[in-house]
Design brief:
The chain is α/β, with parallel strands linked by helices and 218 residues long. It contains five helices and eleven strands; from the N terminus they run αβαβββββαββαβββα. It has one domain. α2 runs parallel beside α4.
């Protein structure tokens, strides 16, 4: 789970960036898991615990980023203030705002109709292996079939729906996944040279396939 997913979905949903994007623009919303970096197991735990609130005692600085240790979760772009045009980390000053934001996004997430929602997860962000995780931690951002199935079950349980109702798009690489070959709704991207944003070409191709599938269903 990483920032690349949110960045690319917003780019692709903008009609100015992608031909035909307007037809699905209304389906792309800011989500509670956008701009977070964490293993898929963290999201599974959050969903299984009904996405609980956090407080100041829960958040500490780890690797120079705000970190919720209990869920092994980085708020990579949050808890900052801007002074003299420079963004600075300040958990104490921003904690109330971030708690309210979390609650608001959880409410929006909970109101999604799972029958009309496509969930997207990716682990193709390059700096997961250079800036976020150390080598002994690389298994944390690997996607396995067991983990993906657990995530699907947790989504179904959270929304109180059947497993068949969950559409989970998985974007990964062959060297960052195991057992996903042959799984529907799974795309394997080649390695790119971008630090964190990912390959426009790969995401564009994925988006075209997605929008074609949506159009075929409609």
């Amino acid at each position: 789970m990483s920032c690349q997913t949110a960045h690319q979905l917003r780019r692709l949903a903008d009609p100015e960036n992608r031909p035909g994007a307007a037809s699905v623009e209304s389906q792309v919303h800011s989500g509670i898991f956008d701009w977070l970096i964490c293993p898929p197991q963290s999201v599974i735990s959050l969903l299984n615990n009904d996405i609980p609130d956090f407080n100041r005692e829960n958040i500490r600085v780890h690797k120079e980023r705000p970190y919720w240790e209990h869920y092994n979760l980085f708020f990579w772009h949050n808890f900052t203030v801007t002074r003299n045009q420079i963004r600075q980390l300040n958990i104490d000053e921003t904690i109330d705002k971030e708690m309210k934001r979390w609650s608001h996004l959880r409410t929006r997430f909970s109101e999604l109709d799972p029958h009309k929602t496509i969930f997207v997860v990716s682990n193709t962000q390059n700096n997961l292996a250079t800036e976020v995780y150390d080598e002994p931690e690389y298994d944390q951002f690997q996607f396995t079939i067991d983990i993906i199935e657990q995530l699907e079950h947790s989504l179904a349980k959270y929304f109180g729906t059947s497993l068949d109702s969950i559409q989970l798009e998985v974007v990964t690489r062959k060297n960052r996944s195991c057992g996903l070959q042959g799984r529907n709704l799974t795309s394997f991207f080649p390695i790119d040279q971008n630090e964190w944003k990912g390959s426009k070409e790969s995401w564009n191709f994925w988006w075209e396939k997605l929008t074609q599938r949506i159009a075929a269903v409609d």
